[in-house]
Amino acid sequence: MTLVNTPATSAASTDAPTSYEDFLDVLAGLRLTSSRIDIDLDRGQVTLDGRDAGLSAKEHDLLAHLAANADRAVTRAELFASVWAQADLGADSRTVDAHVRRLRKKLAAAPDLISTVRGEGYRFNSTPAVRVRLTRPVALAA
Length: 142
Fold this sequence. Notes:
29% of the residues lie in helices and 23% in strands.
């Protein structure tokens, strides 16, 4: 579940301290919504409204890299180096574009999830309707 704040009116002046009543008003404006798309990068699962999205392994790898770098433009060269590292593809290959197109089609429930950044690459856009779970690697010092 995701908490979404949808205030009916504009917030009070930033100079005035927030009162307990203001806090209660904010709480009253919160509503619970379930995630339409759930991306669990650790388990390799992507679900749409509770059903498996049916992504191929390469589509999952692509989505994982984009989601791990959410809200920033990821270049085609970076995707070649990370997702297609073992493939012998030339810089003029359109495989990234084809995979992004298929991924967008499978994730049509969120049409603005992956956007094209002209001249830069692709960007995964964070939204409340999408939940991404990723455990960051942790290094322990001895």
